[in-house]
Design brief:
Structural class: alpha/beta
Distance between the termini: 20 Å
Helix content: 25-40%
Largest sheet: 4 strands, mixed
Number of helices: 15
CATH class of the largest domain: Alpha Beta
Bound molecules: uridine-diphosphate-2(N-acetylglucosaminyl) butyric acid
Shape: globular
Number of domains: 2
CATH topology of the largest domain: UDP-n-acetylglucosamine1-carboxyvinyl-transferase, Chain
Radius of gyration: 24 Å
Oligomer: single chain
Strand content: 15-25%
CATH superfamily of the largest domain: Enolpyruvate transferase domain
Mean pLDDT: 92
Number of strands: 26
Length: 469
């Protein structure tokens, strides 16, 4: 398993470009299951989640290959397989997106229930409600959803739940309704740009979907969908993460390939915090002319602040003097990163769906553990801004959604080294310090590390960074 060793305090400078959006690429790849003929997708990021979905789609009868021009070429060659096994689905919840296209195109699907995860319970009741309204026969047995329908029929569907709409639920119902007989309307549809991107791709496939980007979708069913070419939208979450990395290090960075229109609430909040953002070319220049301010953030469905940058905002505000409150109304339990940020000197107290942050003058490097994808990104941001070295374990979470984030940040002057999680790779600076009462000459009288300490091999962090360069 890999971990990051991060040397904090490096000011980021330079230019970096945002990759294609993971959460648009995944449902769009799944939608290709419903197409006849080849599909070519551009801008699909090279991520572990994309590879996992690729494995699942291959098992479901698709051929998938990266072309020389970077496009992902996909085509269904076998319509028979209908089972999405637990082994793949548990590795990535977005696998549930194969349910709608399988059911619509192959008339039956057997998809493992994804289960909960570190950010909350994550039920799929709304997905099932929508598909049932289209006439699917559904049953849940032995951890699997069994769905079948000779021909789905258009219906009026309401997709609002206790935490707003559902992103992948809207995708699933939209994909199924595209091949249903008659007209489907979805009220309380998710408005996220990734859902819009899927809808636009599907319209290129021959679907008839209108109202994209609004809570009311109208889908006129068609008899068949064909393959299409499409360019995935830039990842708004990666863009926000890079902007915050620059801001937290007091840097000056140009982030290219940003759709500002997808980030209105985020950019407004960053400006309120004191981050200067100037549109340039296809992106934004970011710098911080003065000290950062505290601010309150409420994470809501789009166009509100995205839950997927709640953790990164928490890292940013942890080092902004004053009291900030961060509330997550989409995933009210998504706070596992808070305790890790506290290990880095942050002052954060959890109150139900909120975290109260008392900004400190500076964070300090520590050894911390990532609990999910966006939590990992928040820990990287905190480590970049912290005094001293940090170690971030379980970065496999990060690799699911950011393609080599450390390479992008290192190109801006960060010092992040990816090494094996092993005792010999722990920086000496993070070992418990020799401390205790000091003698007359300042020498430590007592070594708190105990007599066995020498058995753990320490290393100088410099060696790790030198090896990475
Ligand atoms: N919900 C229900 N019932 C359902 C579905 C969802 O009550 O049937 C609840 C959820 O528990 C949650 C809220 O509704 O409280 C929103 O969940 P949603 O279904 O929208 O989430 P999702 O589709 O499973 C996608 C992203 C997540 C992102 C959320 C919210 C993908 C592949 N995943 O998940 O992305 O946090 O929308 O915007 O698109 C990430 O990239 O790190 C990530 C977790």
């Amino acid at each position: 398993m890999d971990m990051f060793v991060v040397r904090g305090g490096q000011r980021l400078e330079g230019r970096v470009s945002v990759s294609g959006a993971k959460n648009a690429a995944l449902p769009i790849m799944a939608a290709a299951l419903a197409a006849e003929g080849p599909t070519v997708l551009y801008g699909v990021p090279d991520l572990v989640d994309v590879q996992t979905l690729g494995e699942l789609l291959t098992a479901l009868g698709m051929t998938i290959a990266r072309r020389a021009d970077g496009g992902l070429q996909m085509e269904v060659v076998d319509q028979r397989p209908c089972v999405a096994e637990y082994d793949l689905v548990r590795r990535m919840r977005a696998s549930i997106c194969v349910l709608g296209p399988l059911l619509a195109r192959r008339k039956s699907a057997c998809v493992s229930l994804p289960g909960g995860c570190n950010i909350g319970d994550r039920p799929v009741d709304l997905h099932l409600k929508g598909l049932a309204a289209l006439g699917a026969d559904l049953r849940v047995e032995s951890g699997y959803i069994f769905a079948s329908a000779a021909r789905l029929k258009g219906a009026a569907i309401y997709l609002g739940g206790p935490f707003g709409s559902t992103v992948t639920g809207t995708c699933n119902v939209m994909m199924a309704a595209a091949l249903a007989e008659g007209v489907t309307t979805i009220e309380a549809a998710a408005c996220e740009p990734e859902v819009v991107d899927l809808g636009e791709f599907m319209n290129k496939m021959g679907a008839r979907i209108s109202g994209l980007g609004t809570p009311f979708l109208r889908i006129e069913g068609v008899a068949a969908l064909h393959g299409a070419e499409h360019e995935i939208i830039p990842d708004r979450i990666e863009a926000a993460t890079l902007l915050m990395a620059a801001a937290m290090t007091g840097g000056r960075v140009q982030v290219d390939n940003v759709r500002c229109g997808h980030l209105t609430a985020v950019l407004e909040k960053l400006r309120e915090i004191g981050v200067r953002l100037t549109p340039v070319g296809s992106g934004l220049a970011v710098d911080v002319p003065h000290a950062l301010n505290a601010a309150d953030c409420i994470m809501l469905p789009y166009p509100g602040l995205p839950t997927d940058i709640q953790a990164q905002f928490m890292a940013l505000l942890a080092a902004a003097p004053g009291i900030s409150i961060v509330t997550d109304k989409v995933f009210p339990d998504r706070f596992m990163h808070a305790a890790e940020l506290v290990r880095m000197g942050a002052r954060i107290r959890r109150e139900g769906p909120s975290a109260i942050i008392s900004g400190v003058a500076g964070l300090s490097g520590a050894s911390v553990m990532a609990s999910d994808l966006r939590a990992s990104a928040a820990l990287v941001l905190a480590a970049l801004a912290a005094r001293g070295d940090s170690v971030i374990r379980r970065i496999y979470h990060l690799d699911r959604g950011y393609h080599r984030l450390e390479a992008k940040l290192n190109s801006l002057g960060a010092r992040i080294s990816r090494v094996q999680d092993a005792p010999q790779n722990m920086p000496a600076s993070l070992a418990p310090q020799t401390c205790g009462r000091r003698g007359a000459g300042g020498a430590a009288e007592h070594d708190l590390r105990g007599p066995n300490w020498g058995r753990v091999r320490e290393t100088s962090a410099d060696r790790l960074f030198d090896a990475a360069e």
